[in-house]
Amino acid sequence: MLPESLLCLLSATFAFAQARQQLTLDSVASFNTLRLNPPSFSIPQEERLAVSIALCSVTSSQPRFFVSNISNSDGQSDPGPAGGTNVFEIKMVDGLGSWTGGFPNGGLLSVQSSDSDGFSFDVGLSTNAEPLHQNITLPFLGDTTSNQAIVLSAPFAKFDIPVPSYPNYTLPAANMSQPPPPSSTPNMTLIVTETSRAITGGPRTGCFLSSQTTTGAIDEQMVWARDILGYRSQWLLSGLTPSTNYTAFVIQDSTKVSGPIYFTTKSAAFLCPLVHSLPFCPGVAYSMPLPAPPAGSTSYTAANLPSTLTDPLISYIANFTHVLSTFACGRDWYSPLKGCDDCQREYRRWLCAVSLPRCSEASPANPDGFTSVPAEPSATGIVASKVAQQVLSALVPVETRDPPRNEFMPELGQPYTALLPCLEQCNIMDRACPPFVGIKCPTSTFNAGASYGVGYIDSADGDEFGGLTGTAQDRWGNVWCQLV
């Protein structure tokens, strides 16, 4: 018989080996299954918790996670596939899963896997209703060139927009600036890889994607207020390969993932440079038919865009604002829903879209898929394709001899293909402005298709979101018409 002292020592050692690690509230902990003994965790008492799991490495088999909220006692059995009272499985999708519920007596979390090589994963406990690990709104593709791309995150914070009120009807200046930067910003990371790479088969989680190498180089990252939805992170990438498919994710604070979105770089023959970061046209982030940027620059911004182009545009906004300010814009609104500030904002967006044309090119899969010029009076901007159910973008070839849409545009000196603005850009402005301004948008019955892409977002008859695509662009890299 073993001495009593040795029995006590063995008993203490066994109990220590079986003690579960307690998870910490409102934090993320990282683990590897090869170093778990036992493969379960203690969850502290809390009225309500969001438990989230993120796989951080590729596994040979799909692991399963189970949670129970009866007790966190070491004598309580691990929750598992056999079920039982208050045992719940956390469903995993693309390496991410979460479960929210009450833990009045604490609880347990267990992991089960047949992967002998082991794998790493993160666990987060949130006392808010929002899990620490989650998928968030998709990022936004500005545009690409043959070797560049501009990508923006989803909005992460709102900013104050002063609304004119009686007797002060002051509207934003024509040459307005960006709103003051936010006091704090989340940590935003852009991950871009060639779509053909195996990254698309791995977990779509922050801890896994953060370990991947971004293709190309990030020349610039900045906070940008593109529209009234709020602040975004904006990235300018270079060093990409022409005519190549890419996949992009945005990671926020290491745990929240937006994406993927997909895009294709233009062909090597595409020469239109990117234009972005224009405070007076904050929605502009695309390529334009301009000569190469000045020496030392890889794109155009407000700092180097020709004043011969920007001065007339700003002057138009100033003149329109002056006319608009003669109307009672505050207490005496002309609409219970809209004010002069809405009208000015939508006029600015429309003017930027039609004054700063966007370059593009037909899909390599259908190089002849573009709008004929000149368009018929009843044209919609959509051309029938020989391929059933295929929707073509509102592309118009522009020859060198053709007069520019904007007379102040510098000469490009070569043909290019323009992407027409969406007709909705004009209609939104029309709905936001008072009748006395005299805005008249074309209709599909007459000549709208000569200047706009029609029937994509709204139907040709004007049914909201009843068009062929319901949107100007999608997450797969299709851009049908231009909307700033």
Automatic annotation (TrEMBL):
Keywords assigned: Signal
One GO MF term attached to the UniProt entry: calcium channel activity
One Pfam entry name: Mid1
InterPro entries, sorted: MID1/Yam8
Highest taxon above the source species: Eukaryota
GO biological process terms, semicolon-separated: calcium ion import across plasma membrane
Sequence intervals crossing the membrane: none
Span of the signal peptide: 1-19
Name used for this protein in its record: Uncharacterized protein
Species, as recorded: Cyclocybe aegerita (Black poplar mushroom)
